[in-house]
User: Fold this.
Amino acid sequence: MELPEGFRRQGEHKSAHDYSLFTLHQGDDIVVFLVYVDNLFLTGRNAELIDATKNKLHQQFKMKLTTLEYDQSTGARGDELLSDISFYQRLMGKLMYGTITRVDINFAVQTLNQFMQHYKGSHWDAATRELKVLITLPISVFSDSNSAIQLANNSVFHKRTKHIEINCHFIRDKIKSGLIQAVHVQTHDQIADLLTKGLSQAQHAHLLGKLGVLNIVHPAA
Assistant:
């Protein structure tokens, strides 16, 4: 990225190590801004210098307003900026972890993640709604062993379970609380076998089909 001539004359410098990293020095103050595709990260110690840099960028480039700046420019009211960012950051951390297994909330979480430093009431409400989605929907764990399912649902401790690892008891507690639901599946349809067993070519192809994996080199006739 090349800065306009006016920027270079006013003291901005381009990093020799990262061509998308720029710095502005004025006395003891510094402003650092990093450009990635169509996103820009701006930080520094002097709030007035940061605002001045943003104004320069607005003059030279077409830039989107933040939600706060948009409200200020349009005079919108009723969705105020919240002061304590720690609650929002902790909540977003939990939601980002949840996207590992719940890809359906990934877009919403990544969008809300853009407001980690300056979030409003509407962002908090949207984040808590996504959290409710994670809490209210049980996670299904599929097993082709009826014995394992019965043992997982049986909260009675007896001699046959005394050597079970502690993490298995943790799973059983989550089943009891309703967070996890153990579901029986026929061995022929157990997708996990793809990673744990040596399968025949026909069975391997059958399970790949359940995952929606297709061979683009040799498509099915």
